[in-house]
Amino acid sequence: MSKDAHSARMAAADLVAAVTGEGQLLSDALGQGALTALAPADRARAQRLATETLRQMPRADAVLKPFLRRSPPAPVLAVLRIATVEMLALGAAPHGVVGAAVDTLRAGGIRTDSFASLGNAVLRKVAATDPAVWATLPVPELPSWLRGRLMSAWGKPATRAMEAAHLAGAPLDLTPKDGDAEALATQLGGEALPGGSVRLTVPGQVSELGGYASGDWWVQDAAAAMPARLLAAQPGERVADLCAAPGGKTLQLAAAGAEVTALDISQGRMDRVAENLGRCGLAANLVVADALDWQPEALLDAVLLDAPCSATGTIRRHPDLPHAKGGYGLRELFALQAQMLDHALTLLRPGGRLVFCTCSLLPEEGEQQIAHLRDRHPDLLADVAATDLPWIAPEWRAGDGMLRLRPDFWADRGGIDGFFIACLRLPG
Ligand SMILES: C[S@@+](CC[C@H](N)C(=O)[O-])C[C@H]1O[C@@H](n2cnc3c(N)ncnc32)[C@H](O)[C@@H]1O
Question: Is 107 flagged in the annotation as binding?
C-alpha cells in the first residue's frame, strides 16, 4: 500500500472515531488536527471512506459482532468498521485491506497498537465472510432519537423508505446559472430534472467538470434549489437571503437579476458566499450579522429564510449527522426558527413574499412551524400561486403554498434531499 493510501486510511479512522466517539460532525473533524496536513486528494479519499463507513455502519457492526467479545475503544472499532466496509461493501481485495488495517492499528500509538493482533484475527474472519452476505443484511436503521420522531411523523413504511434512500446515497446535482438545464445536461452528459436542475450520476471531480471555472453552474441538490425557484425573484426586486451561507440560494437570486442582500451570522461561512459569487460572476450585498437584529434601509419585496435546522433532510449526503448530533439542541432550533420567521415578516413591504425553508424531515421545523406562525399572524396569506407550477409532483404538496420533500421521493431518479418549503405573502 502506498504511503498516501495509508495516511488516507488513518485519517478516515480518525474521522469515524471523531463522529462515533466524540459526537463531532465530519465537516468539523475534517478541519482539525493531522487531517489539515493531508494533501487534498488524500483528504477527499479519507472523507469518502469515512462517509461510506458511517452510511453502512450497522451492517459492518452486524458482521463484526460475532467476532468481538466486547466492543473495543472507538478508534480501534473505527479501523475495523472501515476495513469491513472496504472488503464487503466496496469489494477491495481482503489481503491488502487486512494488512493495511493492522498497520493502521500499529501506527496509532497507545490508543490502538495493543489491539493490532486482535484486529488481525477479527479481520481475517471478516475476510473469510461470503461477500454475498452483505446485501442480505437489513437496511441500516437511523439512531432511535431520530427514528422515533420520523415514525411518529410519517409512519413506518415511509421511515423505512427514507432509510433505504439514505443507504443509496446521493447523486451530484447542479444548478445552471442561465437556467438552461437541457443545454447543461447535454454538455456534461447528465439528466435535466423537472424544475431546472441537472443530475450527474457518474461521480467525478467537481472542479474538473466543464463550466466550473467559468462559473456556469454550482453544486446544489435539486430540492435545495426549489425554494429560490418558488420565490421567483424578478429583475430589480429587493430581496434578502437571511441565512445565506454557503450561498446556493443567493446565487440563484442574483442570477435572476434581483438586488440581493445575503446575510449570515458566520464570517467564515460568508467568505464562501463571496468566493462562490466571484466564481460565478454574480453580485450581492454581503452582511455578516445576526438575522434577528438586521433591518434593511427600506422594506423588501421578498425574503428567503433558509433557517438553521436539524439538517435531517441531508443524511443521504451526511450520514455522520444522526450519529454526531444525538438529537440535542432541537428545542432551541425550533424556537430560533419561530423568532426568525416573526422578524422576517417585519422586513417586508405590504404584499411582500416570504419563502421559508428547512432541510429537515421534522414537522416541528416545517408544517408545525408554519401553523404556529399563522396562528400568531392571522392576516398572513399562503402564496398558492407560487407553487402552481407544472413540475411540482402531487405527492410533494403539503397544503396551500407548501411542499414537503422527502429523500425517498424520486427514488427512480436517485432521490432528493428532504426539505420543507412554505410560500407566504403579506396582504397587499
Ligand atoms: C441551512 S444553512 C443556509 C444554507 C444556504 N441558504 C444555502 O443555500 O447555501 C443556515 C445558515 O444560517 C446561518 N445562521 C445561523 N444562525 C443565524 C442567525 N442568527 N443569523 C443569521 N444567520 C444565521 C448559519 O451560519 C448557516 O450558514
Answer: no
Residues 233, 339, single domain; the answer is: yes
With a 6 A CB cut-off, is 178 part of the ligand 1 pocket? Answer: no
User: Is 194 part of any domain?
Assistant: no
Residues 251, 350 within the same domain:
yes
Domain of residue 384, residue span: 221-425
Cβ 246 under 6 angstroms from ligand 1: yes
Q: What is the pLDDT of residues 280-325, one digit of tens each?
A: 999 999 999 999 999 999 999 999 999 999 999 999 999 999 988 7
Residue 418, C-beta contacts closer than 8 angstroms, at least 6 positions apart: 162, 223, 312, 313, 314, 315, 359, 360, 361, 405, 406, 407
- Among all residues, which ones are annotated catalytic? 359
From CA 237, how far away is CA 153, in angstroms rounded?
37
> Which atom of ligand 1 lies closest to the CA of 241?
6
Domain count, the chain: 2
The C-alpha cell at 164 is: 433505504
Question: Is ligand 1 within 6 A of the CB of residue 269?
Answer: yes
pTM value? 0.94
**pLDDT surpasses 80 at 144:** yes
Distance 157 CA to ligand 1 centre (A): 32
- Is 253 part of a structural domain of the chain? yes
The ipTM (two decimal places) reads 0.99
